[in-house]
Design brief:
This protein is 72% helix and 0% strand. With 400 residues, the chain is mostly helical.
Amino acid sequence: MTKKGSPSPTPPSERNVSLDALRGFALLGILVINIQTFSMPFEALSNPTLYGGFEGSDYFSWLVAHVFFQGSFITLFTVMFGGGIVLFTESKDAKDHSATRLYYRRTFWLLVIGLAHAYLLWYGDILVMYALCALWVVSVRDWEPAAQVRLGAVLFAFPAVLYILLGPGTSPEFWNVPEAVLRSQIETYRGGWLTQMEHRIPTAFSQHTNTFLVQGFWRISGLMIVGMAVFRWGLLTNERDAGDYARLFAAGILTGIPLILAGVWYMSSNGWSADAALWWRPFNYVGAILVGFGYVGGLMLYLRSRTQSLVTKALAAVGRTAFTNYLLQTVIATTIFYGHGFGLFGTASRTEQMGFVVLIWAIQIPLSVLWLRRYRFGPVEWLWRSLTYGEKQPMRVDME
C-alpha cells in the first residue's frame, strides 16, 4: 500500500481521456507493422518484395500498411512518450517530490523490462531504445517549446539526410537477401525457444547498436523532444481550438500521404532495385510524421463530441494499459507464429497477417475494458509503478 504523503501514480480519476485514447490508438496501429516481423523474415519489412506476397490483395495489404501505418503510429507513440516525460516530472515537482530521482528509477526499470522483452521474446522491441533516449532528453524538458521543436526537428532530420547521402552506395546484400538466409530464419523461428535465440540475440544486439546509432537515437530523441513541446502546447490533451485540429488533420494527411505514395511510385518505377532502396526511405520517413500528426488532429476532433462513446472508452482503456498491451501483443503473436506455439512463422501472406491483427485487437480491446473495471492499472503498469515508487501500489479500484 502507498504510504500517506509518499510519491504515487496519477489516480485514474485524474487521467486525461484524450491522452489515453490517443495512446491506445497508437498502440493498436503499431501492430499492423509489427505483425510483419512477428510472422515472416525480418528483412521483408525493409524490402517487401522478398517475402509475404506482393501482388493482388497482398500488395494492397502492404500498400495500406505502408501508407497509413508504417512510421506514423510509432511516431504517435514516441511523441506521446515525450509528452509523458513532461507530465511525469511536472506532476512530481508540483507535489515537492524528487522528480529526477523517480524519473531515472522509472527509466531504469523500463530498460530492464525492455532488455528482457528484446532478448527473451522478440528482437523488434522498442522499449530499450526509448529508455536509452529518455536518459538524456529529460535534460531539455524545461526548454521553451519552440526551442524544443527546433532541436527535435534537427535530430529527426539527421537519418533522412544520411539516407540521401548514402543512397548511391546501397549494397545489393542489404536489399537482395539470399533465399537461403530467409529459409534459415524461417526454420529457426519454427523451432523451439532456445533455437530462436540463434537469430534473436544477434538481431536484437544489432538493433541496439548499429540501428540505434544510425537511426534510432536521432529519430526517437527528436520525436520525444517534439512531444514535450506539443504536450505543453496542449495539442495532445485536446486543449487547442477545433480549428487548429482541423488544420492539423488536413495539412498532415494532404501532405504526408502524397509524399509516401510518391516514394512507392519511385520504387515501382525503378523495379524495386537495390540502387534505389536508400533513396526511397526519406519519402516514408518524412511522410509518416506528417500523417501521424494528421491523426492527432483527426482523433482530437472526434473525441471532442464523443468523450463517452464506446470507441473512446475502448481506446482509452487500451491506452491506460498500453505497456501491458504492448507486451501482450508479443506474447500472442509469438505464440501464433513461433515454434514454441503454433509454428506458423513464414506461412501467412500479407493479407492473412491483417486477419491476425484484427484477431489480436479483438482480444486486447475487450480485455482492457474488462480489466479496468476491477483494477487501477494493467499488470505491467502496476509492476512498473511499484518498482518506480519503491512500494507496492494499490491495484483494485476499491483500494485507497
